[in-house]
Design a protein that fits this description.
Length: 263
């Protein structure tokens, strides 16, 4: 109930959305700053042909691998917008980029990342996705995974992606939204200077990940959350039976991935 109320408030006040989500993630990062092994903040991705796993980190990492495999990252300058707890930035190092930058609106999240990752080839920066603190044409590849639904003005965000990408650069994009509105998203991207090369409905893969990670999530919630808060946290975590899980299941919400290129 609490999570549903939170989402409704965010949906009704898009201009405040970014600030409301920032507050949520500031609190979360402060409360769980010692959970060094918690590196990802997405619902994950699983392939039905692969053996099932309850390894939450691996499932979340699969979503990034799904995006990273859409283009060649070797020798490229990569930016992740909405980097969260930094797992995606660490994972992309496996693809031999030239440099990696992680940006998030939450100061506490960025503090966590700077303490958790000591690799010299990753830089973490606090910043607003709708007003990126970077010069024009700074990056070859920009990544955004399960983050843009938190933003107040996605058109501004897409324009900032286009501005900071180099000519011909790629935008690796994954998120979820209401199915009835989804056809508008490719048009928004094109309007903002980003050509959609490929798009996929990966809802089934995300649901499979939610099913496989439920044991881990239930155990973690019982370990770190007070009993009165467990139901609400379970809803945010996307455990089976939660509002977001049911919306994926009944087709009201779609989880998609896209490869876009700066026009």
């Amino acid at each position: 109930m609490l999570s549903n109320l939170f989402r409704k408030i965010v949906d009704l006040t898009p201009k405040l959305s970014l600030h409301i989500w920032k507050l949520f993630y500031e609190i979360t990062a402060r409360l769980y700053k010692k959970q060094i092994d918690w590196k990802f903040m997405n619902y994950g991705f699983a392939e039905p042909q692969n053996p099932p796993t309850n390894d939450y980190g691996a499932l979340c990492g699969n979503l990034y691998h799904h995006l990273f495999n859409k283009t060649d990252i070797t020798g490229k300058r990569v930016l992740e917008i909405g980097c969260g707890r930094g797992g995606g930035c660490e994972l992309v190092l496996q693809y031999n980029p030239k440099a990696v930058t992680g940006l998030d609106y939450s100061e506490n999240v960025i503090k966590f990342c700077k303490q958790a990752y000591k690799q010299g080839d990753i830089t973490f920066v606090t910043g607003n996705a709708e007003n990126l603190p970077f010069a024009d044409e700074s990056f070859d590849i920009i990544v955004n995974a399960e983050s843009s639904h938190c933003y107040g003005n996605r058109e501004l965000f897409f324009k900032e992606v286009a501005r900071t990408l180099k000519p011909g650069g790629y935008f690796l994009y994954a998120d979820f939204m209401g199915s009835i509105h989804y056809p508008k998203r490719p048009l928004q991207l094109t309007h903002c200077g980003l050509k959609v090369i490929t798009q996929q409905d990966i809802t089934a893969n995300v649901l499979l990940s939610m099913d496989q990670s439920v044991t881990y999530k239930d155990a973690l919630i019982k370990k770190v959350a007070l009993k009165p808060l467990r139901k609400a946290i379970g809803d945010f975590a996307g455990v089976p039976g939660s509002d977001i899980y049911n919306k994926f299941k009944n087709g009201h919400t779609i989880y998609f991935s896209m490869l876009c290129q700066k026009a």
